[in-house]
């Protein structure tokens, strides 16, 4: 079995990292909302925070993998943008570069969303 | 392979005559049956501008009323109707449709295509929009306009005593318009992915197309939650199902969630296309390619995603847990990153080029300056503690107008000045443009900046008057003066657009020396592009010598219309290699009939005219079936077509190769989102109550599981029908289709039997109500599935379906994949969840 997936040519790989961000965001919101609705409102988030912390690490790892694949598709940075030649190679490089940029943004956005897990300890302090 | 064909003068003339004949716009009253993208785009845009002017007049009335304290210019109720309609019309009838209009007008030529893939769908969307818009706007002349604010919060808006029929007009009129938006989204996604000129790989796509692709995708996930919300809302108003009534287990907050899951992405759905116009205008006036093409793609995609994580920031004061607020606050701050990126990209492009300051650039730059101020106050209100202070004050009114007018109206006016030559072959006046800009820019700031201060001094939004001597008088008077200065600027733009210009000489075809393909379109000709070019640059007009002459001389693909059909090329998603010659629908009255009869359904529902509703619904169905039967999956006389330059392409494809399959897939993705929103409602009620059934009997387990089983069997029968059809075994195909239809009918009955036999009363409590609504949604989808099966059966019997020509069946099977997932989820959850929790 391969550890790193083969290169695939598809438009959809562009959206991998932001999709991971969206799933992470929804998981955090829904889990915390159900916890706060079903537990006592003053209850500590305790284990829920811990679980969501692990989800965050998993999401960041997924995005890092997506970034690595993008970096590989970008030829490990062998060519500079703008990648505007009418060739399949430049199209691939463009896809790799754009995916890499989106992975970076998604990584930062996941970190943003994870900050409350560190600082907020209860549903209604 | 040759890249250019040489034709004799006679051949060219003959081809041009053919093309003119095929693409001509009918005359007389039949002009309105045209489906050509240039006409539809123009009507769409003009209608949206008319609605904008109407809503602008309402805003002026509001400002006059607020100019001085204790004013009695408008009554409280008229004031409420005026501001509600102002917000509603600006958002739903101007901001979103204007981008659909611009896209339908510009995209085909920008992509080097003759037409978008579904021109009749564009026409249907326009007529739905126009009719729905007139209906909603007209209500104020009867004193019946919605009066509860543009986001229609219950319990105020569910109170029939207070809100009268206005709320129904809002809900039904706008649902109708949302249908048009989703139609446009389908059209644009398929158009951008599949109809680009050969060679226009995704790294060569104009940025406008990138933005529009993202925006259309956002519409697909943003509008359906509102449609789901509208269904719940209307069921409460019409039949007393208590979705938002707290006394019977409902919760008004569910509406706020559904509304803002739509409402916040909507802001970006409005903003991104306007910024897309800037991404076309800035490179032209810097006379160089955009700096950071990939960064713009990052910004568009990133904003598209992040904007869905912001909705609760409209609900910071509703008492949600602080941890939830913090997640949304964090995402609201994060969205500033991609938004900032695109602004820096524009600044970098301007710095790297030699900027020519012209009227479009004035409006663009002025708009960006205003937008940045709105963005900064946006970062402020994204912080929960600040928002608690500013919520529902004029600070918010100021913020949202800075964002929307700077981020949308100014760039759109820039676009009007920039693209006007494509309409009329003449430019608008530079002098009037500059006067208009300075009036609008200064008027805007005079009007809206003081609102920040009035808000910080505590002035709540939506009050119809206020007492003197609490420190708001001067701010309001200044705002009113500014509003009239701003309106004067808008009036000058209108005068400039409308003044007769036939005495002026015609200008050049590409007066700004732009580099992108939309400038090849000739205002007098309806064929879009004379021949479909091979693209080798992001800015073909700058980089590909002679491309305009070659296109006009018919030296590229599809220079003729031999069979008298409207044709364009379908190309592959990534590398834009030609794969099909697509025949698109021509002039037809069917799309108008379908739109008007569907409009009849919504309007009759508003007034509870049940018989008229039924008649209109049957007419809609008949019109749509006639449209499909005569205009889609047409079997061509010959299988292949010589498209020129030594290339032949198939005329008929099915499955994922075909545009129809994509359209079905995209439509069902939107439909699935609406369904997911209803299921969100089901679980929402579970979270807010200790026992969400409140002791009411559920649908039981037996009947829902029977429905799951029967729907699954019906789906398997559809797979068998497809298999039989692949072997050209007609009798077996028909048998499987019939069997599947019978199974679906049985499945629907089983689904309904659950709640019916246990006597669930949807007016008693929210639990039976949500069970019924999920059941009905699923059963109605089953009903649509049966109609589709009957349609395939009829196609087969009419000899229009075979193994080679199986587009109808493949698309219906695709629908069934979505249907079976819906059915298993619905009846699985309804049957099993109450026991599991």
UniProtKB/TrEMBL annotation, chain A:
The chain crosses the membrane at residues 12-34, 46-71, 92-120. Keywords: Membrane, Transmembrane, Transmembrane helix. The keyword Membrane applies. This is Transmembrane protein. It comes from Shinella curvata.
TrEMBL record, chain B:
SUPFAM superfamilies: Cytochrome c oxidase subunit I-like (SSF81442), Cytochrome c oxidase subunit III-like (SSF81452). It catalyses: 4 Fe(II)-[cytochrome c] + O2 + 8 H(+)(in) = 4 Fe(III)-[cytochrome c] + 2 H2O + 4 H(+)(out). Pathway: Energy metabolism; oxidative phosphorylation. The lineage of its organism: Bacteria, Pseudomonadati, Pseudomonadota, Alphaproteobacteria, Hyphomicrobiales. Residues 678-835 form the Heme-copper oxidase subunit III family profile domain. InterPro entries: Cyt_c_oxase-like_su1_dom, Cyt_c_oxase-like_su1_sf, Cyt_C_Oxase_1, Cyt_c_Oxase_su1_BS, Cyt_c_oxidase-like_su3, Cyt_c_oxidase_su1_bac, Cyt_c_oxidase_su3-like_sf, Cyt_c_oxidase_su3_a-hlx. Residues 17-548 form the Cytochrome oxidase subunit I profile domain. This is cytochrome-c oxidase. The chain crosses the membrane at residues 40-62, 82-111, 123-145, 165-186, 207-228, 267-286, 293-313, 325-349, 361-384, 396-420, 432-454, 474-498, 589-611, 617-635, 659-682, 702-721, 733-757, 769-791, 812-833. Pfam families: COX1 (PF00115). Keywords: Cell membrane, Copper, Electron transport, Heme, Iron, Membrane, Metal-binding, Respiratory chain, Translocase, Transmembrane, Transmembrane helix, Transport. It is found in: Cell membrane. It is a multi-pass membrane protein. The gene is ctaD. Its EC number is 7.1.1.9. It comes from Shinella curvata. Coiled coil: none annotated. Belongs to the heme-copper respiratory oxidase family. NCBIfam families: CtaD_CoxA (TIGR02891). Its main location: membrane.
